[in-house]
């Protein structure tokens, strides 16, 4: 009698001479056999899993088949394969079919087998093919024979394993993730990637073919090094009291990564803080960028473990920039030199401009507007107002778009403040003090939105903006308490139509008044899809659409008001509706508008057709203070 998984050769019939694998034994005594078409298991190992889908299943009697005896390897040979002393190819070339290999006796794979295999594989000039073949064999052919199923528990991962099961689970888990990363070349981080080595700079696995191999090998060796470090650390620490343990660099990196925020350090125990400082010190001696970065910014801002010290911060920032070209380090160095923090308060503008320029080239907002400033005023560089203003205006526009997308942690506040300064100093043609006041209002609004992110120096910037606002209010005689504004044209209506989407327009009569109310709202999917609703639900595929309306920034200098909104409202004083669509609630979607120069009416259009028309002496805006 044949067993499921047995390899057989067919003796007669239309499949005579073919090879197959027994898949099922039927009640009537027949066998279901998957035909084997001489797949090359070494070149296409995935066939071992997909063979049943790609090969035909035929029914045969027991008499029509001969058993192909498996190639049996000894426990010693199995151990040699686990340690990569022998390859699967060494045996598979002698066997037909290549999958027909069995172990005489199980061997319990150890964590040191993993280390030995990686060390041996990595000595080869082309380690990746060997690694993939070795681990494919472990996963697909000898997983149970190596006792991995009972030893490996994917829920047992630890930076500081205390027994063989934990260290094996950790090392095997990382090795398996490395294998699948090489096989599938993931383009994004996995949720559980914290169990892989924490790369200082995430390796890039997906590149054009001519560049891919070198980076793949580099990233592969980094992960292998992490695995070997963990095993060596465990072997040294095993049986010793915790105070005598030696930690691998990757273990130390994991620990310090958990305490990079000052709040985390404050909540840590004194023992944990001491361990954190010890690990940072040891990693710094190894030239680890993560440790250098922690020392640089800890001394820059000061925290519970390190006092603020500009000289030390400058030293570490220079090391970090020279080692990895970190643009944030260049930005911070720019500020140190700009304010002369290591030069008795005397600015070192040339050095500041140099490092701000490095960071600006990498897109750091702070550095971009600092370079713009220094170009405009000729600090540390030859004065170039045109270039500086171009950088400033572009940065303002880009970060204002961030604000309208509710990305409040951007550097819009600084750009807006500098735009205000430029207006005040007559550097922007056609814009003056009223425009400066508008930009200062936007800066103050942005700082208020950014406050929860606790940016370093925001309090000082806010105090400066408040001072400038107060000066401008006195100069322009602005009534800070005023809350109503009249205009002969609906301000910001143009911005409402900047999207390619329609605008929802509502024209209603104010209750108890002869005045009308004009309300403009930016596009939402629900406004268009509401006609498709069936039993209160949107069609399949539309239910998960983001219904958040896009926004615009509205600033009324006369009212000392700024906000980011998706809806604006006007009261029509002495207004008249000349044409109204026949819709519920007097609201409709409009994709265009114009002011009729002949009649003076404001006309709204939908698909090129006039939908509504209104006129008014004044469009009145009222804001809540």
Strand content: 5-15%
Enumerate the strands of the largest sheet in spatial order, edge to edge or round the barrel: 8-19-13-10-9-15
Number of helices: 22
Low-confidence stretches: 39-53, 186-208, 531-545
Structural class: alpha+beta
Summarize the amount of helix as a percent range: 40-55%
Question: How would a crystallographer describe the biggest sheet?
Answer: 6 strands, antiparallel
Q: What is the approximate shape?
A: flat
Q: Using only CA atoms, what is the Rg?
A: 35 Å
For the residues shown, what is the average pLDDT?
A: 86
Number of strands: 19
Termini gap? 89 Å
Task: Walk me through the structure.
- By secondary structure, the protein is of the alpha+beta class.
- It is 44% helix and 15% strand.
- The strands form 5 sheets. It has a 6-stranded antiparallel sheet with strand order 8-19-13-10-9-15, with no helix packed on it.
- A hairpin with an 8-residue loop joins strand 1 (7-10) and strand 2.
- Helix 4 (111-122) packs antiparallel against helix 8, helix 9 packs across helix 11 and helix 13 packs antiparallel against helix 14 (327-338).
- The protein is flat.
- The N and C termini lie far apart (89 Å).
- The model is unreliable at 39-53, 186-208 and 531-545 (pLDDT under 50).
């Amino acid at each position: 009698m044949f067993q499921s998984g047995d390899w057989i050769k067919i003796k007669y019939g239309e499949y005579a001479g073919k090879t197959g694998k027994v898949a099922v034994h039927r009640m009537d005594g027949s066998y279901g056999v998957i035909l084997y078409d001489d797949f090359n298991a070494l070149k296409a190992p995935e066939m071992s899993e997909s063979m049943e889908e790609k090969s035909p299943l035929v029914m045969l009697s027991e008499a029509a088949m001969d058993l192909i005896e498996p190639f049996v390897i000894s426990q010693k040979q199995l151990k040699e394969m686990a340690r990569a002393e022998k390859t699967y190819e060494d045996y598979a070339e002698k066997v037909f079919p290549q999958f027909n290999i069995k172990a005489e006796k199980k061997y319990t794979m150890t964590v040191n087998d993993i280390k030995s295999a990686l060390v041996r594989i990595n000595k080869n000039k082309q380690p990746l093919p060997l690694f993939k073949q070795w681990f494919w064999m472990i996963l697909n052919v000898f997983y149970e024979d190596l006792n991995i199923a009972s030893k490996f528990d994917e829920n047992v991962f630890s930076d500081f394993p205390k027994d063989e099961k934990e260290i094996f689970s950790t090392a095997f888990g990382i090795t398996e993730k490395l294998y699948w990363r090489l096989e599938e070349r993931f383009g994004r981080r996995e949720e559980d990637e914290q169990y892989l080595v924490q790369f200082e700079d995430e390796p890039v696995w997906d590149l054009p073919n001519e560049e891919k191999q070198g980076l793949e090998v580099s990233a592969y060796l980094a992960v292998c090094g992490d695995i070997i470090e963990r095993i060596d650390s465990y072997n040294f620490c095993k049986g010793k009291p915790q105070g005598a343990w030696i930690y691998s660099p990757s273990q130390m990196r994991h620990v310090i990564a958990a305490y990079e925020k000052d709040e985390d350090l404050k909540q840590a125990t004194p023992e944990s803080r001491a361990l954190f400082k010890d690990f940072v010190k040891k990693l710094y001696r190894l030239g680890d960028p993560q440790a250098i970065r922690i020392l640089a910014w800890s001394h820059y801002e000061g925290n519970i473990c390190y006092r603020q010290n500009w000289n030390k911060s400058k030293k570490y920032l220079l090391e970090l920039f020279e080692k990895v070209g970190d643009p944030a380090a260049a930005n911070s160095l720019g500020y140190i030199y700009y304010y002369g923090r290591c030069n008795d308060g005397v600015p070192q503008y040339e050095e500041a401009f140099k490092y701000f320029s490095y960071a600006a080239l990498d897109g750091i907002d702070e550095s971009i507007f600092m370079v713009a400033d220094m170009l405009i005023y000729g600090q540390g560089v030859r004065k170039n107002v045109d270039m500086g203003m171009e950088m400033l205006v572009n940065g303002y526009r880009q970060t204002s778009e961030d604000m309208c997308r509710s990305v409040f942690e951007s550097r819009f506040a600084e750009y807006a403040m500098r735009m205000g300064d430029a207006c005040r100093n007559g550097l922007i043609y056609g814009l003056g003090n009223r425009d400066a006041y508008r930009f200062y209002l936007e800066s103050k609004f942005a700082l208020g939105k950014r406050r929860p992110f606790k940016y370093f120096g925001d309090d000082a910037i806010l105090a400066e903006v408040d001072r400038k606002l107060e000066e401008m209010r006195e100069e322009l005689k602005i009534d800070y308490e005023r809350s109503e504004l009249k205009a002969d044209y609906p301000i910001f209506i143009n911005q409402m139509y900047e999207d390619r989407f329609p605008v929802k327009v509502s024209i209603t009569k104010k209750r108890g008044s002869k005045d009308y109310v004009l309300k403009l709202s930016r596009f939402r999917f629900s406004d268009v899809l509401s006609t498709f609703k069936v039993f209160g639900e949107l069609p399949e595929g539309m239910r998960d659409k983001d219904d958040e309306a896009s926004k615009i920034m509205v600033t009324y200098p006369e009212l000392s008001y700024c906000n980011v909104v998706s809806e604006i409202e006007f009261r029509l004083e002495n207004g008249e509706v000349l044409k109204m669509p026949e819709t519920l609630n007097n609201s409709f979607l409009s994709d265009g508008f114009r002011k009729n120069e002949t009649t003076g009416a404001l006309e709204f259009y939908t698909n090129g057709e006039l939908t509504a028309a209104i006129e008014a002496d004044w469009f009145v805006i009222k804001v809540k203070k």
